[in-house]
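USER: Study each token:
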Amino acid sequence: MSARKLQCLRLPRQGASLPLIYEDESGGPDPRRVQAPELNTCLDAVATTLSNPNRALLRRVFIAEDKSKYVSVAYPARHYQQLAEFGGAKKLPLLLNVQQLQTMAENIATLCDALGTNEHYMKDGDFRMNTTASYRIAGVYLGKQYLTFTYEELRNLAYVMYMIQNQMTFYIAAMTDVIAYIDTAHSSTTYVEPPSTANTSINYYQLFEELKSVF
């Protein structure tokens, strides 16, 4: 079994590998060599966030071992809106606002328990969550769009949900500085330092790299 297999019912082991931020000759982070904005597993995501919990711009976190499902906050393709994006293979992603994300957080543990015991559960409304007729499969719906989750995928998502919410809180607080930085840096070919008054919750090296992948 791969050492990187998803293991989301326990905290990361000491010394778990983290995404690399390379250093330049002066010992500082080199923005030209920041690792691509994704993490392979939710285990890596928890380890990274615990090592630096006050930085926003969550990288894409896969909650399925085959990378068929992921979650991200304020991903560049969504123009840095205050949205949590839940994506799946061959499916349009669900884009949840802050209130919908809170609803998911409040209900995901109960839904997961219902899947584990193969019981029926329904959270109704325009944004809804429920068990399905298929064994240990849950559905999450936003209007006519939906994603399905296996029991293992839902457990993985439940394990990192607190982190998703915290990242959203940090991001909303820094939104004004994020937009100002984008306006300043999007046309530059070299890294632009943020002003000294900029919100320190944002990883501006990562933000600049992601800008270059979009513009």
